[in-house]
Specification:
The complex is a heterodimer of chains A (225) and B (342).
Chain A (H helix, E strand, L loop, with lengths): L1 H17 L2 E9 L19 E17 L2 E5 L4 E5 L7 E7 L6 E6 L3 H4 L23 E9 L8 E7 L9 E6 L5 E6 L1 H6 L8 E2 L4 H7 L6 E3 L1
Chain B lengths: L1 H21 L23 H12 L11 H4 L47 H4 L1 H5 L8 H9 L4 H9 L6 H13 L7 H6 L7 H13 L14 E3 L14 H4 L7 E3 L21 H9 L20 H12 L4 H4 L8 H4 L4
Antiparallel strand pairs in B: 1-2
Helix pairs in contact in B: 2-7, 2-8, 10-13
The chains are: A alpha+beta (225), B mainly alpha (342).
């Protein structure tokens, strides 16, 4: 009898606990028709470029209700790989009844994380998002080819990053969102190429002025769908 | 009921005792400054240190299995690379600098001659990935280690996880290197009041304090800052040091100040190993006036030393050699692990 009662209390407790959390899924999409990212691997009449690598860090996700900060995501950094569909959905758990009007997140890894030594999971240096000859995370990596790129095989490589003044490349994105459990964020890749003269700038792989200039354009790539 | 709780309490205590006995605390001599390394993020344990030591000596870290960390950082040379002005690596490639000695790393925040690396944990990534050093990638090293019979159990013992990650690999390498503490030279024994310096050593010590201590500050014998030391640029190497990392003109020709500890073992000297002998180094600092860079106040225009002064200074500098460190068996090739049947 006592055992049954305890079990009942336990199960009731877990049901109550489960209700304490609200789960919001942040989906990154490369276009809004639901076909995902595969089109980027093939050059078409509309897109003069093809992409074979496209990864970036999303860090310090915060939810706001008007100007009030209502939730900061526990996981500090997510590595989004456009060609790995699982990585495109970020799960954010927050207290039940949290409601929000805005979302804010960084593209890249902040300076404190950059000087914190070896880190695991998405920040493990085996993920290919860490410079080896000089310490620092690559915030945003995109590689492929573009018809107007004068390099060998029209290839371009952009590894954007840098955490130290004056080459701090970290960017903040702030978007108005509906108070729903799914937030779809589109990545407007055309906008990236709109801001580059690919004929002269096609290889950026160190934390310099150009890395910062190109990084400054990154918030324009993200929009709520 | 009472018995039950006592048993539970005892089991919990035993469980945690197991944890705590695994903890290793590094000894910091009282006259040394505080550690720079944050041990809270990577608490030392015997298992992790042993794993790091095996990795340090294992050429599996290189692309073709020929180069280990110890290839350029030999324990018998205070973990420096002697006999070569420029260190060499994978496929007989010659580098652009002389591999620095490794000791007292827990007191340093920046690594490499140009400070390119901001944390000891991340340092190993550079030689592993450099095409002229180990020519490998960290992800492939992890893959190779995972497919040995030797390493998954060692990682399990160290991190309670036999799935090897880059984080574990780098942290283990840090742990072994953090134990490389050099603090038992004649100078250290004098500091601790165990012995007294000879008259000549005292004279040399005073000359050191007047002329060298601003950059090679006691007791680590380096501020581990970056300094311009008036060396002309090698026309082939064209190495501008720190500015190649920061892209700031003010950092041009700044190099990390090396410690003078163990200097007898760490020749040749300077970032490109251009001087074979200590007297060449002293001669260089005697003749700095022509190449003095404006704005650097640390280096006296030139250091005037009589020939007797030079002998006295050298006598003092030799008190910085730490034989116990260089011959410490705990730092050497781990035969029991790497020469086992695995």
């Amino acid at each position: 009898m006592r055992l049954t009662l305890s079990l009942l209390i336990l199960s009731l407790g877990s049901v109550l606990l489960a209700q304490q959390n609200r789960v919001c899924t942040l989906n990154f999409k490369t276009n809004d028709d639901g076909t995902g990212s595969t089109h980027m691997k093939k050059r078409s009449a509309e897109t003069p470029y093809t992409i074979h690598t496209f990864q970036f860090y999303v860090s310090n996700i915060q939810l706001f209700n008007e100007s009030e900060l209502v939730h900061t995501c526990e996981k500090t950094a997510f590595l989004v790989d456009v060609f790995d569909s699982e990585s495109l959905s970020l799960i954010i758990e927050m207290p039940y009844r949290t409601s929000y009007t805005h979302i804010k997140f960084n593209i890249g890894v902040d300076s404190v994380t950059n000087v914190s030594g070896a880190l695991g999971n998405d920040l493990d240096p085996t993920k290919g998002m860490y410079w080896t000859w000089q310490s620092g995370y690559i915030n945003f990596k995109i590689e492929g080819s573009h018809v107007n790129c004068p390099s060998r095989n029209n290839q371009f490589q952009f590894h954007l990053g840098g955490y130290r003044h004056p080459f701090n490349a970290l960017q903040t994105v702030q978007l108005s969102v509906k108070n729903s459990d799914v937030i779809n964020i589109g990545i407007l890749l055309d906008a990236f190429f709109d801001h580059i003269d690919i004929r002269s700038t096609h290889h950026v792989m160190s934390p310099t002025n150009i890395s910062v200039q190109l990084s400054n354009q990154l918030p324009k790539l993200f929009t709520v769908l | 009921m009472k018995l039950k709780s006592t048993i539970i309490l005892i089991s919990i205590s035993i469980y945690f005792m197991g944890f705590f006995t695994d903890d290793v605390k590094l000894h910091r001599p009282v006259y040394f400054p505080d550690f720079k390394y944050d041990f809270n993020k990577n608490p030392l344990s015997e298992g992790k240190i042993a794993l790091g030591r095996a990795l340090f000596y294992d050429p599996i870290l290189s692309r073709d299995g020929t180069i280990s960390c110890a290839s350029c950082h030999s324990p018998f040379n205070a973990f420096a690379h002697t006999d070569h002005d420029l260190s060499h690596g994978f496929n007989d490639s010659i580098g652009t600098r002389n591999a620095p000695a490794l000791f007292n790393l827990a007191w340093q925040n920046h690594f490499m001659w140009d400070g390119a690396i901001n944390h000891l944990d991340m340092q190993a990534l550079a030689p592993i990935s450099h095409p002229g050093e180990m020519g490998e990638s960290i992800s492939n090293v992890v893959y190779k280690l995972q497919h040995t019979t030797l390493y998954p159990p060692l990682f399990y013992e160290a991190f309670c996880d036999s799935v090897i990650t880059g984080e574990f690999l780098l942290k283990a390498l840090s742990q072994f290197q953090l134990t490389l503490i050099s603090a038992n030279s004649k100078y250290d024994k004098m500091k601790r009041g165990e012995i007294e310096f000879s008259e000549q050593e005292i004279k040399g010590y005073n000359l050191f304090k007047q002329n060298c201590n601003s950059c090679h500050a006691e007791p680590l014998f380096s501020t581990y800052d970056f300094a311009f030391n008036n060396l002309p640029v090698d026309p082939v190497l064209r190495d501008f040091g720190r500015s190649m990392i920061t892209h700031q003109a003010v950092d041009s020709l700044l190099f990390k100040i090396p410690s003078l500890r163990n200097l007898q073992y760490t020749y040749p000297y300077m970032h490109d190993g251009r001087f074979d002998h200590l007297n060449q180094v002293l001669a260089h600092y005697e003749n700095t006036v022509v190449l003095q860079k404006a704005g650097d106040k640390r280096i006296p225009k030139s250091i005037h030393l009589s020939s007797i002064d030079k002998i006295d200074l050298s006598t003092f500098l030799l008190t910085l050699n730490d034989d116990d460190f260089v011959l410490n068996k705990k730092h050497q090739f781990p035969r029991d692990i790497l020469l086992s049947n695995n």
